[in-house]
Write a structure and sequence with these properties.
Layout lengths: L2 H4 L6 E4 L8 E3 L9 E4 L12 H6 L4 E4 L10 E4 L3 H12 L8 E6 L4 H13 L5 E4 L3 E3 L4 E3 L7 H13 L4 E5 L2 H5 L8 E6 L15 H9 L5 E7 L5 H4 L6 E6 L6 E11 L2 E10 L3 E5 L5 H15 L4 H10 L7 E2 L7 E5 L4 H12 L6 E5 L7 H14 L2 E4 L9 H12 L5 E4 L3 H10 L6 E5 L6 E4 L2 E4 L2 H11 L15
Parallel strand pairs: 2-3, 3-4, 4-5, 6-10, 6-11, 7-10, 11-12, 12-13, 13-14, 18-22, 19-20, 19-22, 20-21
Antiparallel strand pairs: 1-5, 7-8, 8-9, 14-15, 15-16, 17-18, 23-24
Helix pairs in contact: 3-5, 4-9, 11-12, 12-13
């Protein structure tokens, strides 16, 4: 493909070379450049791609896209653009055949709920005959392969390759999480969004190398509604109006307010045979009873977003209802049903805000005891440890402190920091360094009516110790415990998960 075709949608200046130059591949990784490649010189926080200009020219790069002049042989075509990150998305899209135009693209942004909502939507669409891919925090599903995710929203060149693969694999739609970083760094440049969904907004990702302020964070989130054709937004969120500033999309709303297009009312928490969830009546553009087998008021909003999208895309209501009663999202309030007498959950809550939210949610179900099992990551802020300890000490009846990803720190030192936070409260705690043994204690000492939260790792299937990631899946740890113990001693044992 000629450079002229690739840059047709950009403002650019030719510094040297010809628009007739042929491009065989596009790359932003200097190590992968081959003869005839177009290389994007990206200015990053750690490295500047412009510094690799000579190296990639020697490897045979035919074209460089730059933000400022570079010194390379005259045979290399050099094109200057205002923003190489934005250009990378647009050029990559064209190079890979503009795949987003061949798919129904659904983007979901917000502080919480993105992951769960993507899986709800994917399941609803797939059960209606769509073939739907997924790009998210946990994994990428392209119709053939399932690949662990490295970023919530990958770099644009990676995303465009994934979308190209989805088209080649016969998919017709994709649902993807769109992070504030993804919007700020133009990782979604070149994508035609059919739908954009807003879940909620609270303070997160504010600090060095992320966002300078909450206002900046909010502003980048709102960008999705200047990129999509139809926006589906949580009308109840305090920042609903701000998310629509400058929007260019058709607006559909959901929530509990009377003005919402999809409305939930008469909600009731339920707890049955170790399971927890919520029921509500749905009104507005579609009416009926909804049961969501995931605990918490936030499940109303996540499910409403999915209901709205699915209904707009023609998914029958009986399929919507079925998905919401059966959906399970790995590591997101994930029920492990081993007992009718107590509830065992795995969740990714790994900071004070998310742990507090989760414990408060579980408190609403009035457990006999609320037990929190967690640790904190090594080589990270000690403040997080103090805060998580204090939150758990205040909200849990029993905290079992254990190891998470100690990295290059000693697990006991990390646990000591968590204890510092707990000691600010009247909370009861014990310490068990080995994570499996901590789980064993929680399960074997569970009482009727307990809710046990295994927090911090969620979907992760490893434990990082001194630079090495060792396989460790919490579901496997639980299964091993059940195989090793006399299950008749487990309160209300009725294993429906590993049977």
């Amino acid at each position: 493909m000629k450079v002229m075709e690739l840059v047709q949608k950009l403002d650019y200046t030719i510094l040297q070379g010809s628009l007739q130059t042929e491009v065989t591949e596009v790359e932003n990784d200097s190590r992968k450049v081959t003869e005839g490649s177009l290389f994007f010189c990206i200015t990053g926080n750690v490295r500047d791609g412009h510094d690799f200009a000579k190296e990639v020219a020697e490897k045979g790069a035919a074209v460089l896209l730059v933000e400022h002049p570079v010194d390379v042989p005259d045979a290399v075509t050099v094109i200057q653009v205002p923003d190489t990150r934005y250009a990378m998305g647009v050029v990559s899209s064209i190079f890979y055949g503009e795949p987003s135009k061949k798919l129904t693209v659904i983007g979901i942004t917000g502080t919480k709920g993105k992951t769960t909502t993507t899986y709800m939507i994917q399941s609803m669409l797939n059960q209606t005959g769509h073939r739907t891919g997924l790009i998210g925090t946990i994994e990428v599903m392209d119709g053939v392969h399932t690949i662990p995710a490295e970023n919530t929203t990958p770099e644009s060149i990676v995303t465009q390759r994934i979308l190209r693969d989805m088209v080649q694999n016969g998919l017709d739609s994709v649902v993807m999480e769109v992070s504030s970083q993804g919007l700020m760094l133009n990782r979604v440049a070149g994508i035609d969004f059919d739908y954009g969904i807003f879940t909620n907004l609270s303070e997160d990702h504010i600090g060095p190398n992320e966002h300078a302020s909450f206002e900046e964070y909010r502003m980048w989130k709102s960008k999705l509604f200047r990129l999509c054709r139809i926006g589906i937004l949580n009308r109840d969120d305090p920042y609903y109006e701000e998310m629509l500033e400058g929007h260019t999309c058709q607006v559909i709303t959901y929530g509990m307010q009377a003005e919402a297009d999809y409305r939930a009312s008469d909600s009731k928490l339920y707890r049955e045979n170790g399971r927890m969830g919520i029921r509500y009546q749905l009104a507005g553009r579609i009416q009926g009873h909804v049961k969501v087998d995931i605990p918490g008021t936030f499940s109303i909003y996540n499910s409403l977003a999915a209901v709205a999208l699915a209904n707009e895309m023609g998914v029958p209501f009986d399929i919507i209802q079925k998905v919401l009663t059966t959906i399970k999202v790995r590591g997101r309030v994930e029920l492990i049903p081993i007992s009718d007498a107590f509830t065992l959950l795995i969740d990714y809550a790994h900071n004070a805000v998310s742990l507090e939210s989760m414990l408060q949610t579980l408190r609403e179900y009035h457990p006999k005891r609320l037990v929190a099992v967690f640790g904190c990551g090594g080589n990270r802020s000690k403040t997080r440890r103090y805060e998580m300890g204090e939150v758990s000490g205040r909200l849990a009846d029993l905290t079992i402190i254990t190891s998470d990803n100690p990295r290059f720190e000693e697990p006991q030192a990390i646990m000591d920091d968590i204890v510092t936070g707990i000691l600010k409260t009247d909370g009861t705690h014990i310490e068990i360094v080995d994570r499996k043994e901590a789980f064993r204690y929680a399960i074997m000492n569970a009482r009727e009516g307990d809710v046990i939260l295994l927090a911090g790792k969620g979907h992760e299937d490893y434990q990082e110790i001194k630079g090495v990631k060792y396989h460790m899946d919490e579901r496997e740890l639980i299964q091993e415990i059940l195989e090793e113990e006399d299950v008749s001693k487990i309160c209300g044992y009725n294993n429906r998960y590993f049977a």
